[in-house]
């Protein structure tokens, strides 16, 4: 989606180590402009073995 001419873009995320080598994360992204709103939430899990 294209970015509006006057828009605010916000991104934030958090990762949490649930055990050695394993991480659980969540992130948020939002774009707000005149006549435009786009939001997303993403979750992920990473495990190293």
TrEMBL record:
GO CC aspect terms: outer membrane
Protein name: Autotransporter outer membrane beta-barrel domain-containing protein
SUPFAM superfamilies: Autotransporter (SSF103515)
Family matches, as Gene3D superfamilies: Autotransporter beta-domain
NCBIfam families for this protein: autotrans_barl
Lineage, broadest ranks: Bacteria, Pseudomonadati, Pseudomonadota, Alphaproteobacteria, Hyphomicrobiales
């Amino acid at each position: 989606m294209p970015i509006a001419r006057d828009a605010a873009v916000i991104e934030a995320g958090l990762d949490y180590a649930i055990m050695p080598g394993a991480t659980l994360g969540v992130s948020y992204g939002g774009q707000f402009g005149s006549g435009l709103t786009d939001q997303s939430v993403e979750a992920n899990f990473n495990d190293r073995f």
